[in-house]
Amino acid sequence: MELYKREKYLRKIRPFYDACDLIKVISGVRRCGKSSLMEIIADELRDRGINEENIIYIDLDKRGYNKIKTAKQLDGLIEARLQGNGLYYLFLDEIQNVVGFEEVLNGFRADGKVSIFITGSNSYMLSGELITKLTGRYIEFEVYTLSFEEYEHMKEFYHKEVNPNSLIELNRYILEGGFPRTIQIEEESAKRTYVNEVVREIFEKDIRRRVKIKDIASFEAVRNFVINNFGATTSINSLQTALRKTGIAIGRSTVARYIQTLVDAKILYECSRFDMKSKRALSGEKKYYLADLSFYFALNTDNRINYGPVLENMVYFYARSLDYAVSVGRIGKLECDFILRDKELGYSYIQAAYTIALSKETEEREYRALEAIRDNYRKYVVTTDYLLQKRGGIEHVNMMDFMMREGKF
Questions:
Q1: Which of 230-234, 245-249, 333-337 has the highest mean pLDDT?
Q2: How far is 402 from 407, CA to CA, in rounded Å?
Q3: Distance set, CA 32 to CA 2, 97, 143, 209, 292 (Å)
Q4: CA-to-CA distance for 323 and 251, rounded, in angstroms?
Q5: What is the pLDDT of residues 264-295, one digit of tens each?
Q6: How many CA atoms lie within 13 A of 95 on its CB side?
Q7: Phi then psi for 155, rounded to 5 degrees?
Q8: Does residue 270 contact residue 257 with C-beta atoms inside 8 Å?
Q9: Distance (Å, rounded) from C-alpha 373 to C-alpha 379?
Q10: Which pTM was predicted?
Q11: Rounded to whole angstroms, how far apart are CA atoms 351 and 369?
């Protein structure tokens, strides 16, 4: 089957295809499309005329390679394939399966004859030894599940029905989520079964094998609570108190460890809060967003959509996919949904809401926080409205249109 090209990521990686001095690390939650991205890179190299024997693709999760567990085994496997001339392109899928892989990668990188691409599904891959031994010698490309515009484009690519009403498509996207494989699944119940399997796989492969969790029931209680309250300001103390009210008593350090485990497994992404008057991060207060919205709906039987956190979640990952640093802003008693910082240290500010058209109070609430910011960086109100407001130089944009044209904040 022909693979859908996710250009927003390929554009970032292409300049480094031949860079043998830098290891290309493609990270992201399981099943988000990392392997397909590497296969497309390999296909683009073939289209450039690279010989097949110079392209080495090893999936360490698949039969034939899943018994490669040690650095020595991996080194021997790769060495046996490097028998010709010219630059080699080495693709290693799910590299974290091999203990001590860092030394192997560093050795082949130092030889200057191999351009290395690796994938991994959790943050453990980019901790400890890899950071120590490869500082300045690798570049990470984080891949997320399909954004709304990718969801529509991929459906069109595979000749799936796309409703011309973008609000209907938005609701479908929210309920189905953005795992690429779900595009090929027709029934909604089957899509949820698939997502539940992803959650189970993450727990078994990315959590249980690496973290000692004695009380699985307590861990799942923390996981479910944070997922059910994504987008809400959360602290360890408030979470501990809320769990205690449900009869679950967990120590503060254990709660913190469980949340960090979920972040490391890329189920959750944390967004720190930033006080714009003092220009300091607010310690202990964070928001957590879901790697994919389908996690929420797969773990709940309720199909009702709380659009506030859902749209925030979409904006958060859309901004992250464009390489913005993202935080939540506080201005006195007011809160700005997101402060974005680009690589040139330029800022932009965003308020996200389902609509401001039905209530003057809602419009005032969304604009008031932005109007309280006393600088000249760009400010946006992002909604699903098609009738757009003009007020005080603040840009009011329709979320679906903005994302479909790949707008930048």
A1: 230-234
A2: 5
A3: 17, 18, 7, 21, 9
A4: 36
A5: 889 999 999 887 766 676 677 899 999 999 99
A6: 30
A7: -60, -45
A8: no
A9: 9
A10: 0.92
A11: 8
| CA 100 to the chain's CA centroid | 26
Distance CA 232, CA 398 (A): 23
* C-alpha 232 chain-centroid distance: 18
45's tokens: 């190299």
State the Cα–Cα distance between residues 272 and 362, nearest whole angstrom: 25
Q: Which residues contact 242 (CB under 8 A, 6 or more apart)?
A: 225
Terminal Cα distance for the chain, rounded: 35
SS3 112: coil
Cα–Cα distance measured from residue 338 to residue 351, given in angstroms and rounded to the nearest whole number: 7
Map residue 119 onto helix, strand or coil. Answer: strand
- Residue 7 has which token pair? 């250009």
Q: Is the pLDDT of residue 25 over 70?
A: yes
Order of all β-strands in the sheet with 347-352: 233-234, 280-290, 268-275, 325-331, 334-341, 347-352, 378-383, 395-398
DSSP state of 18: T
Residue 120: closest CA among 35, 191, 247? 35
SS3 382: strand
Nearest Cα to Cα of residue 243 among 228, 225, 230, 258: 225
pLDDT at 165: 95
CB hemisphere CA count around 70 (13 angstroms): 3
Task: Please tell me what DSSP assigns to residue 124.
Answer: G
Taking CA atoms, 124 is separated from 121, 133, 385, in Å, by 9, 14, 41
Task: Give CA–CA dist 338/312, Å, rounded.
Answer: 9
> Which H or E run includes 273?
strand 268-275
Q: Cα–chain-centroid distance for residue 73?
A: 31
The tokens for 271 are 């967004």
CB contact set of 92 (below 8 Å; sequence gap of 6+): 58, 60, 101, 105, 116, 117, 118, 119
Radius of gyration of the chain (CA): 22
Report d(CA 83, CA 81) in Å as an integer.
6
User: Could you tell me how many residues make up the chain?
Assistant: 409
Measured from the Cβ of residue 394, the count of other Cβ atoms closer than 10 Å reads 18
Answer yes or no: are the C-beta atoms of 267 and 280 closer than 8 Å.
Answer: no
